[in-house]
Task: structure prediction
Amino acid sequence: MIYGGNVLFDLTADFLTAYGELASELPNEASIEPSIFVDEDGNRLVNIVVVYAGDHAAGEKVMAPLLKLAKPRAVELGAMPYRDFQTGADAMLGHGKYYYLKSGLLTELSADLAEIIVDHMSRDNPVMSWFQHLGGMPATVAPNAMAYSHRNSALNLGLMFFSEDPSVADAQIAKVREFYQDAAPYMIGFYTNLNEDTEKKTWGNYGENYPRLVAAKDQYDPKNLFRLNANVKPSA
Result:
């Protein structure tokens, strides 16, 4: 059992920047992750998924500032099975749909980026956007200790299209790419498994760790058998 649930707010740039500040101050036991979407009535909304992996009374106290960022439209917080939280999006993101996703890592949610997000979400038929709340224990590892170098990332911004209708796919994918292009100057890199970009961009994402990855590739996979991923090529 965890303390968690959902809190629904109206989308504004001020709310997003306030969210980013709060996310950076929370303890490791806490996670608050927004999904930004348009409801059936055309309202631009932010649903914050809340998880506190610790004492429930402490979680309620830690999450109290979230309810003061703005006036919530709805609040559903309390004790819940972690399984319910983990499977909460299964129906929405089920098999058999068309999906396209791009994402990038941020050290902060700046006011300028918040305005860009609100702008794109205010357009006709916008794609969904969301944040993963990072930091915590991964941030205590040195950037050069492992392949993943972006230990100072505070958030992962995701931009996503999904639908059961293939006729809208091309238009919506174009919107994801345009949104991403506008947000990219604020990103420091990306989570490699969510990348489908150029080899040069993939390699640069590892920073100073890339030569060590090439050395490992030279030793264990010199013929590049394992290449159907964000590939690190052997030097040979």
